């Protein structure tokens, strides 16, 4: 834990920033099994928001592990730290009036709850929208675009979520997307509709 540090607030409040930029920030947190469709939906949602001239940025699980979290593995402790860091980063982006779209397996309820609590404790509280990208294990295994489930079943990948490591489904997510029933376009429309309904974007 660092000591002898002091928080230095800026001259522009979160509320003033939102007014000046004409947009409120929020974190849209996509969670679900590998191959459930999180990254695909997040990419399409980011594109849709940007084409509407809205400030948006996507944080993807694999991409972040190339840089910020490249020192972390997939043990329970490392998974926890991975999500803790992303919770902090997504809050910073959202406080800059950005619609922050995250796509992480984030398998543990406690870690997602921590990210939510972090946003709730911000001043002012920052919207945290949990999106459960729900696809049955049989479906994601049949997709398996990276061949990861096959390797996990063969014992070549240890602590693989859904096979040898648990995935804890959200109890009360703001949005549920069943990707075995809904298209990518439909998923984006559903999430965007929620943002409009909550007054986070205007059309």
List the helices and strands and how they pair.
Elements: H1 14-21, E1 26-31, H2 38-51, E2 56-60, H3 61-64, H4 76-95, E3 99-103, H5 109-121, E4 128-134, H6 137-143, H7 148-153, E5 175-178, H8 184-197
Parallel strand pairs: 1-3, 1-4, 2-3, 4-5
Helix pairs in contact: 2-8, 4-5
Description:
The chain has helices spanning 14-21, 38-51, 61-64, 76-95, 109-121, 137-143, 148-153, 184-197; strands at 26-31, 56-60, 99-103, 128-134, 175-178. The mean pLDDT is 95. The chain is 42% helix and 13% strand. The chain has a single domain, classed as P-loop containing nucleotide triphosphate hydrolases (Rossmann fold), CATH 3.40.50. It is globular, with a radius of gyration of 17 Å. Strands 2-3-1-4-5 form a 5-stranded parallel beta sheet, with helices on both faces. It has 8 helices and 5 strands; from the N terminus they run H-E-H-E-H-H-E-H-E-H-H-E-H. Helix 2 (38-51) crosses helix 8 and helix 4 (76-95) packs parallel to helix 5. With 203 residues, it is of the alpha/beta class. The longest helix has 20 residues, at 76-95.
């Amino acid at each position: 834990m660092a000591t002898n540090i002091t928080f230095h607030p800026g001259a522009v409040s979160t509320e003033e920033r939102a007014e000046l930029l004409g947009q409120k920030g929020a974190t849209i947190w996509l969670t679900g099994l590998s191959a459930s469709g999180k990254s695909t939906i997040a990419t399409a949602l980011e594109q849709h928001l940007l084409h509407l001239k809205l400030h948006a940025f996507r944080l993807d699980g694999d991409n972040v592990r190339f840089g910020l979290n490249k020192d972390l593995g997939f043990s329970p402790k490392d998974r926890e730290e991975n999500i803790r860091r992303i919770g902090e980063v997504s809050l910073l982006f959202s406080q800059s009036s950005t619609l922050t779209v995250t796509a992480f397996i984030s398998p543990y309820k406690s870690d997602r709850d921590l990210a939510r609590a972090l946003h709730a404790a911000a001043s002012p509280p920052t919207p945290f929208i949990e999106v459960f990208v729900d696809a049955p294990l049989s479906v994601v295994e049949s997709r398996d675009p990276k061949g990861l489930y096959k390797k996990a079943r063969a014992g070549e990948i240890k602590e693989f979520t859904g096979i040898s490591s648990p995935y804890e489904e959200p109890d009360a997510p703001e949005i549920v997307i069943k990707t075995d029933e809904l298209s990518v376009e439909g998923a984006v429309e559903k999430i965007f509709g929620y943002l409009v309904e909550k007054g986070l974007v205007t059309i």
